[in-house]
Amino acid sequence: MANSYQTGGPRVLQIFPNTSVYQLESRLPKRFCDEINDYFVNNINPEPGRLDVSTLNEEERSVQVRWCQQDDWIGPFIYQYIHQANEHLFQYNITGIYYNNVHHLQYEEGHFHGWHIDTDGFDSIGYEPPHSRSIVTQYKEYVRKLAFIIQLSDPEDYTGGDIEIEINSSKSKLDIGVINKERGSIAIFDPRSRHRVNPVESGKRNALVGWVLGPRWK
Predict the structure, then answer these.
(1) Contacts for 47-56 with beta carbons within 8 Å, 24 or more apart?
(2) Model-level pTM?
(3) Which of 51, 174, 177, 181 has a CA that sits 20 to 30 A from residue 134's CA?
(4) What is the mean pLDDT of residues 129-153?
(5) Residue range 129-140: average pLDDT?
(6) Is the pLDDT of residue 163 over 80?
(7) Is the peptide bond preceding residue 191 cis, with omega within 30 degrees of 0?
(8) CA distance 81 to 69
(9) Domain boundaries defined on the chain
(10) SS3 state at 216
(11) Per-residue confidence band for 189, with pLDDT thresholds at 50, 70 and 90
């Protein structure tokens, strides 16, 4: 169903029939993952946990969301990993990670995120990064070029909550791949790929999720 290639060190490249996932066992220390969790939980108010219905993807989700602040260090730190993955695999024209495209997700029992895509490749973000919704002198369009997920919880901390990505689809068959659940691991993929988070059955799963922006596809 999928071919895995060891690419030197802890990097594992999974090639699927219609998409690629760059998975990196970053070896982030447990205390560092805890520091990221503590920062978001203790300093940023969450959006209410709720069931969302997206008009674009008809997706449904239930999860607690906390968005990065403008002066956060999270985005620049993560970008080093993303840049390596892009150079090695995707080679997209990317600009960077900006705070308003990074958020912390906390999945508790029963929380989930249904099948969805993060962009259709044509929707654009009508501002010039790194500004959020500020007026700019020259309007530019940026789109989400890469998506990333950093696992912040140990797999033993929860059951369920698997992240699945669609690798083949037909009327009679759906093949999926499962993203690495190890604490500190990073998965990077094209945000046009359909993926989901299965319901958490017990415990709590924390993750950092976001997108790398770049000029609109030509």
Answers:
(1) 49/108, 49/111, 54/116, 56/120, 56/123
(2) 0.81
(3) 51
(4) 73
(5) 53
(6) yes
(7) no
(8) 20
(9) 3-215
(10) coil
(11) very high
Residue 186 vs residues 13, 25, 109, 151, 210: alpha-carbon distances, Å: 12, 6, 23, 7, 11
Q: What separation in angstroms does the CA of 182 have from each of 76, 149, 157?
A: 22, 12, 11
Per-chain mean pLDDT for the chain:
79
Cβ neighbour number for residue 166 with a 10 Å cutoff: 18
Q: Are 197 and 162 in contact (CB under 8 A)?
A: yes
Single-letter residue type at 104: H
CATH fold of 3-215: Jelly Rolls (2.60.120)
d(C-alpha 96, C-alpha 212), whole Å? 6
Give tens-digit pLDDT for 27-62: 788 899 999 999 998 888 887 644 443 433 445 788
- Under 8 Å CB-to-CB from 45, ≥6 apart: which residues? 66
Burial grade of 49 (CB within 10 A; 0-12, 13-18, 19 or more): middle
